[in-house]
Amino acid sequence: MQGKMQGLAMKKIGEIGWVEKDIPSIGPQDALVKSIAIAPCTSDVHTVWEGAVGERHDLILGHEAVGEVVEVGNLVKTLKPGDRVIVPAITPDWGSDAAQRGFSSQSGTPLGGWKFSNDKDGSFGEYFTVNEADFNLAILPENISPADGVMLTDMWSTGFMGAENGRIPLGGTVAVLGIGAVGLSAILGAKLQGAGRIFAVGTRPVSVKVAKEYGATNIISYKDGSTSEQIIEATGGEGVDTVIVAGGGPDILVDAVNSARAGSVISNINYFGQGETLPIPRVGWGFGMADKDIHTGLCPGGRTRMERLADLVTYGRGDPSKLITHKFEGIEHIEEALLLMKDKPRDLIKPIVIIDD
Ligand code: NAD
Ligand code: ZN
Questions:
Q1: Domain 159-296, second-level architecture
Q2: Rounded (10°) CA dihedral 312, 317, 264, 103
């Protein structure tokens, strides 16, 4: 398809603006997709305003989308124009060494599965391309709205990974530090993984409400004193089996390690936007010998992952719409939605922009 399109781009570190580009062309395994529902991510904020992954010029932002296939390459077998698809934030190269070893999000290069709004134009444009479309796009089931579908692409996939990587024992105790959309999804993930007690650490009333609905049993405010001291006290001096880190700056790792017991996993899903090194508390980490594992991960992508997350919705295991607090209609509102994500008003969890429902 030929022609021009508009998109909201990172002009340079600290600056966003609209750009006009050619509608991108596709390779034999790719699909050209039209954005129909999109959401900004806190990661876009780290990328633009903290310059977390370095300078980018006129790169169209956005990596959370449901779209409509408008064109497919001649090797694509399972998709056709008109299909409505869930587009994962992460679209791995499935033949890569890392993918074959089971780490598809790191395909090609570290974080290499993260292509949209990192090393190629993303979903804040009218059209974007998807590599290896057969393996990276899932059909949006009829029973899931485009807005809800967008919540699966990154928020659920990342939050649930936080719980999956956390090796949660059945009935185990979990603490989730940070309860934006990612941490809330981690709470639901922890519940689905069989956690017993779940501490949600956060303050925004809108998030606290969803935290309880998603399965949190205890709420802790990090503004009422040290998180780890509160968790240690509430667990009778023991600490928790799994800590999922889903917000905050570098010092949150100190709280995470200090909240964890022997044999625990600190499962980090947070994106640290600044600084050369990150702090680990020497004593809390047993001088390096505490039997506390630190696990990191980038959101899982790909078709099967999205289909499984969609099944969790279809079979009543969770409701992604609870994350959506602000709804806009029309592509021109993307900028407003992204700025909301940057400014984080207290009533915000996640904004969504519907372009064509
Ligand atoms: P968010 O900003 O909405 O939520 C984080 C919350 O943590 C905020 O409410 C903030 O007030 C709170 N917080 C700050 N300091 C805290 C502290 N000391 N203790 C507890 N809470 C504290 O962000 P989000 O959209 O939920 O995303 C969370 C993080 O996950 C971001 O860094 C984002 O970039 C990252 N992310 C990572 C992946 C991945 O693949 N690993 C994917 C998507 C997002
Ligand atoms: Zn994201």
A1: 3-Layer(aba) Sandwich (3.40)
A2: 0
